């Protein structure tokens, strides 16, 4: 009998699918590296095809090759999630910012107001773009891309930045719709 994926992770009662061996191995690796299986993965476990699509896109955007550093990609996740008030992503990706930067204050500043953080002008331009694309996507125009280029980003960087912003806007909306809850372990990470 399938177990409920709910497990306190989301407000929907979706039964967990029978997971394939590769997915079980992926969950085991997450548990080994993080000490837990992130609730976002458990939330998608009702449909392995959707879970694979989510994890493949996440892994490509957040871990794949890019001139945008892993820390900067996590900063984007936090700024987008701050605008969207996504409790799950603010908690999980705030922890990642703390961990990757080695600075617990930076993680908190990113969650509350990235403008208070000691950022490079290039990072600030990237995050200002994240705000505009999140809040008013129809108003993004050539001047916004020109500002990113002036800050030192090339067109591939702009693609990577925009894709990360878009992914977290989508993820935030799914998390809001399902009342997705972060794992308790995230709260104590890198403090």
List keywords for this structure.
single chain, Single alpha-helices involved in coiled-coils or other helix-helix interfaces, 0% strand, mainly alpha, 2 domains, 9 helices, AhpD-like
Oligomer type = single chain
Number of strands: 0
Class from secondary-structure proportions: mainly alpha
Under CATH at level 1, the class of the largest domain stands as: Mainly Alpha
Q: Say which CATH homologous superfamily of the largest domain is assigned.
A: AhpD-like
Tell me about the biggest sheet?
A: none
The helix/strand order is: HHHHHHHHH
CATH architecture of the largest domain: Up-down Bundle
Number of domains: 2
Which percent band covers the strand fraction?
under 5%
Helix content: 55-70%
Measured between the Cα atoms of the first and last residue, the distance is 40 Å
Question: CATH topology of the largest domain, what is it called?
Answer: AhpD-like
Shape: globular
The whole-number mean of residue pLDDT values reads: 93
